[in-house]
Write a structure and sequence with these properties.
Blueprint: H1 2-15, E1 23-27, E2 32-36, E3 40-46, E4 52-59, E5 65-67, E6 79-81, E7 84-86, E8 92-102, E9 105-114, E10 119-128, E11 133-142, E12 148-153, E13 159-161, E14 167-172, E15 186-190, E16 198-202, E17 211-216, E18 220-226, E19 232-239, E20 244-251, E21 256-258, E22 263-275, H2 278-293, E23 306-309, H3 319-332, E24 336-339, E25 344-346, E26 349-352, H4 361-370, E27 374-379, E28 383-384, H5 389-393, E29 409-410, H6 416-433, E30 437-440, H7 461-480, E31 485-488, H8 500-503, E32 506-510, H9 514-525, E33 535-539, H10 546-550, E34 558-561, H11 569-591, E35 593-598, E36 605-612, E37 617-624, E38 631-634, E39 644-649, E40 655-659, H12 660-666, E41 668-671, E42 677-685
Helix pairs in contact: 3-4, 6-7
Length: 686
Amino acid sequence: MGRAITTVALWTMLSAPHALAAQSSYDPQQNAWTISNNSIRAVFTLSPAGLFGLQSIASLETGDLWIAPSGRISTPLRFQLGGEFYDESRQYTLADQYSQALPNGTRQYIVLQDIQGTVLVTLALDVYDNQPVLRSAVTVRNLKSTTVFATFADMLPWTFADQGSRYTALRVNQWSVEGLPEDFEQYQTVLDTAGTPLEIDSGAHAAHCGWLALHDQSQRGLFAGWEFDGRAKTVVSQNGAAGQLALSSAVLSLNHPIDPGTDFSIPPSFLGLFHGDFDEAGYRTQRFVEAVLAKQPPAGTGFPYVAWDSWAYEDQIDEATLRQNAAIAASLGVELFIVDLGWARNIGDWYADPNKFPGGLGSLSDYVHGLGMKFGLHFALTEADPASPVLQANPDWAATEDDQYHGAVSLCLSNQPARDWLIQQGIRMIDDYHVDWILQDGENMVKQCTKSTHTHDPFDSNYSNAVNGLNVVVSAIQAARPNVLWENCEDGGNMMTFNMVKSYVTSITNDASGSLGARRAAFGATYPFPPRYAERYMPGSDGLTDYATHSYRFGGNWALMNQLPNLTPDQLGYLRQKIAEYKNERAEIAAGKVFHIQPPGADATDVIQSYNPATDNALAVITRAAADGPQYMFHPMGLNPDQRYTVYFENDPTVYSLPGAQLMANGVRVQLPLPYSSEVVHIEHQ
């Protein structure tokens, strides 16, 4: 009987008129909550037996339906406190429920108390206008009279009926310090129906981005992200015999103390629906990130920036050299001038070296501003040189594990005295040197520390150094100086998470690892993340050719690392032209859907395309590496079949006028006459 009622409820849900905006409703008779917008509808229930779970989540756009497995509850609550486990079998009573309007959505709070009276759980469920995404966050209050330890927390505790389908999952690597060909590589894996898990190792200094997408053979799909910078182990598995598809994302090495009457927050996560290929999963993820999670970039079309970075000289910099480069950079159209590592007296001693800057670093900053550029500064906030005053005075502030960043040692940011000192140093540094932009760098931003002399639990370093360390430091400095923009760099793109996007307007993907590495990074990172989070640093060793400069065309900030006074007038003119072309294209790419057509390889032609549905324009960067032929037949994707488009190139003078259907079906010929050549294809609606 219960199953029949559920079926009727699901049919009613799918056949009801689509909601125009995010909303939530509660049925007190059934103890049921319906949370919906114009894209999805999710139903949660608290049964008469006190079992709480998700009944279904459905796409109102495609009719795709995901339901709890027969005979099992799909719970958003899965954690362990001491020896007690809280999962789908835990019984609860309803303590409170209420909703809250968000600027672009709604949040439903459901407050549950377990029948043993040990915890009060507050579940926050969010939906947002025009987003096929359910976001969830769990806060646990300890109702016992003694301190308990959170030893397990699942950020993604969902289980669905597999409906007899086979599933393919996609995961994406992060960047590694070694600079491997596998950096930002994508892996598609058909799930084993015997239940063998596919694992994702995410967070700072881990192997993979904090994102997962999967779909079945009919292209009915889910995507998910977890908002945590620390290490997490995420798994997806299919048990065909039980008819179950299970997700889980556990915070690693968790041992967080919760005193009586205090709260523990499990990092949020989001679960989205899509129908199509993995480019569609990426696009839906990116639109959600831009609408809900991401730190907002500067208004207008002038972002991502063209930047210049002083690592062209490594740490051998001085005021005269930087002034000379700044004048040339401004003449080229550079918008952001970054002083990299080497400006301070020491790492961790965040005062400018007076020998390098006799006029003062603030004077250089004012000079850069006078040229019309923003001033950026390198800040390795989790590191300090052993000889720095802070470690000389406080040697115990070092973490137990040293990541050996340019001779510095690691600081433990979840140790409150170190954290408070660093916040004040960051604010003072910004004020002293008139900083507009922070290049946050370091080796492993979430430190490992087991010291019992620190204010964190010695066995809770992963959670504490992420949530109560790095996140607190960055958010406190940003709250004090909200007009300063931050760039994430963990010695490369090694902390690609959906918590990262909340604090940073861009993220480095590859650490000056060359043209091929830059294209690989942008190709992989733009599955989970908006293109602006695929920032690339172009070393001077790449040279100034179309092959090199086009390799940095697609993505976030384009950061030059050339010794500009050494360039010839012809080279400067060429670079000025390429910067102008990048500026004309960046807004279209930033707002577009990315199509990953052909991955980069050392002996192949690679293709990445963006299509902006708002302007009905597309752009593709097509690059021939060491081998392959002199022509490539490019089949653009995502165009309106009935619309006529003008197709033109940045090098080839040929111009076409063709309907979208013909372009997509027959393609357009792109000339790549020599090895290591590249072309940019523009497709504009008429």
